[in-house]
Write a structure and sequence with these properties.
35% of the residues lie in helices and 17% in strands. The protein contains four helices and eight strands; from the N terminus they run H-H-E-E-E-E-E-E-H-E-E-H. The longest helix is centred in the N-terminal third of the chain and has 17 residues. Bound molecules: zinc ion (2 copies). One zinc ion binds next to loops.
Length: 129
Amino acid sequence: MKIYSDIEWEEKLNELFDYLINGKLPDDVQCPSPKISREQAGNILWFLQEVTGIIPDNYEVCAICGDVHSDIRYFDINGKHYCYGCQEYAPVGICEECNCVEIYKHKSYSKKDELYLCKDCRRARRAKK
Ligand SMILES: [Zn+2]
Ligand SMILES: [Zn+2]
């Protein structure tokens, strides 16, 4: 068996997804694809990681682009993963002041400060003035 680097794992897992979902294969290979949904492919990935342990468990599917990433953040607040490239478009984020509290963006934007702020930071800013 081949030993993969992080980036190669990411590449190979996305190839697996492309095969499972779209039936895409390298030119010299033929094998019918199950053509399953991305969500089902995610379930297979989960099984191979958590149940069989044959794939490292630091790879997750991004809720926006649907690709497999190792460089990905999990948000407790809505239970989803977002890769770094997609976090800008995610409905959730991190308070831009304390950099630790998870927030829903639509509830947390302060026009006055032009920042996404958690409740506590918002309150602290108002108290200062
Ligand atoms: Zn993404
Ligand atoms: Zn905060």
